[in-house]
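QA checklist item 7 of 12: single-chain prediction sanity check.
[x] sequence parsed
[x] length recorded as 293
[x] structure emitted
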Amino acid sequence: MSKIKIGLVQMSCTSNKDENLAKAIGKVRECAAKGAQIICLQELFTSLYFCDEENYDNFKLAEPVPGPSSEALCKVAEEAGVVTIASLFEKRTHGIYHNTTVVIDADGSYLGKYRKMHIPDDPSYYEKFYFTPGDLGYKVFKTRFANIGVLICWDQWYPEAARITSLLGAEILFYPTAIGWATSQDEATNKEQYNAWQTIQCSHAVANGVHVVSVNRVGFEQNGKMKFWGGSFVSNPFGTILTQASHEKEEVIVQEIDTDKTDSYRTHWPFLRDRRIDSYQPITERFIDTPNP
């Protein structure tokens, strides 16, 4: 199947985990009613973005994966016949937690999970306090409608992650995300940050010849100090924005894509053909202190 309808759920969250899950389930159903076949939820959608502080009480938000939230979404996926991508706070065992995304096939079966590899530690994004880096590697999931790759938020800034996932056979790259502006920032800084965020992801589409889908949360959190900028979007394999949500409101978007476009773009712009894989060993260094003579 080459023509696929992609559903994006951009929503705001509250401190009530059950309410957030119920809202997400309702929006999955809304996407399905509009014809979506693969639906992506935003990063950590069952809660507020709790990584704005280092608070041990927040570990109580975590759950096993598979677990209650993924099981509820499996039922909805089966009922609606849709693939569902869901980002959850995983409790692996006592003292080990991950930022994890599950993929559920259109028959409701649990296909597996991806654990976020790149973990940020910045003001208002103290994720290293909560999350152990992923240890499952990069993943591609064979769903009813397409082979999909899933990466998570901070992963989206790293071309290596997109490249490896594409080389594993991903036809579409999905990025569940939670990113926003500090409300103290000026508009010029806000615009520059959003443009950089969108540009780097579109560059992954171009470099790898695949569609990219990025789904972000929206709304004010952290007592009004953070405005999550929404702006969820779909890019074609040459970086053209096919659809983009607003920065202000919750939205459910369904966008049709054609994965056959990958062959055309890769044939006319053969970046993968011309890779010099024999020359890339230095990429595994943290920094090259002494240039080669």
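[x] summary fact logged: The chain has a mean pLDDT of 97.
[ ] second reviewer sign-off
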